[in-house]
Amino acid sequence: MKNDRDIETLSTRLVYENRWMRVREDVIRRRDGADGIYGVVEKPDFVVIVPVEQGGRVHLVQQFRYPVGARYWEFPQGSWELSPEADPLEVARAELREETGLDAAEIVHAGHLFQGYGYATQGYHIYLAKDLRRNEAARELEEQDLVTRAFDLAEAEDMICQGVIKDATTVAAVGLLRLKALL
Q1: What distance in Å separates the CA atoms of residue 62 and residue 84, rounded to the nearest whole number?
Q2: Number of H helices, E strands in the chain
Q3: Is 120 helix (H, G, I), strand (E, B) or coil?
Q4: Is 164 helix (H, G, I), strand (E, B) or coil?
Q5: What number of CA atoms fall less than 13 Å from residue 55's CA on the CB side?
Q6: Do 30 and 52 lie in a common domain?
Q7: pLDDT in tens, 20-46
Q8: Range of the structural domain that residue 23 is part of
Q9: CA-CA distance, 142 to 63, in Å (whole number)?
Q10: What confidence score (pLDDT) does residue 145 get?
Q11: 58 and 22 in a common domain
Q12: Residue 1: what pLDDT?
């Protein structure tokens, strides 16, 4: 009998779990009846914040990214793993302050994208932060090596083109904000 669903989950097995993620393996049946497996990484959504000064300079952070073994520039981003139901706007305000020491009088939600929906459930909310005020950063232990700096937008875009900025979330945020004429 032909299945009307694209993919049917026959069983699920938890393979790995820690504070930040779960990895499961699903036995599936495709529409044509063929069986297979899917490995799925479950992570809560996160936020990325594009802090823009009145003159158009954007604030980036740089930190060591262990999985790729190098330091890279990116927009501030993060999640509250222990509170995945938290309001993304609240998370955005807190992450902006935590990583850069900045507060924003205005934060605009630009959209929601998925990080890698071929293997993970995680998505992210993109926020534009304006009317910035300097405050004190409150970094977590994992962020102790974080550096923050303001760049002219043209310089940040050139860093993307030259491969200096390799974070797909940062590149996507610039693209979406440009397409929506918010940046």
Answers
A1: 25
A2: 3, 10
A3: strand
A4: coil
A5: 5
A6: no
A7: 999 999 999 999 999 999 999 999 999
A8: 7-42
A9: 10
A10: 85
A11: no
A12: 46
Are both 65 and 143 inside the same structural domain? yes
Residues 34, 64: one domain? no
User: In this structure, is residue 57 part of a structural domain?
Assistant: yes
pLDDT band of residue 2 (cuts 50, 70, 90) is low
Nearest Cα neighbor of 10 from 124, 30, 125 is 30
CA count, 13 A, side-chain hemisphere, 115? 19
Tell me if 152 sits within 8 A of 126, measured CB to CB.
Answer: no
Q: Extract the tokens encoding 147.
A: 């550096």
Q: How many domains does the chain have?
A: 2
Tokens at 152, concatenated: 């002219």
Once rounded to an integer, what is the mean pLDDT over residues 129-139? 88
Give me the pLDDT at residue 81, please.
82
Supply the CATH number for residue 141's domain. 3.90.79.10
Residue 12 in this model has a pLDDT that exceeds 90: yes
Residue showing tokens 């299945």 = 3
Residues 154-170, mean pLDDT to the nearest whole number: 98
Closest by CA position to 11, among listed 36, 32, 42: 36
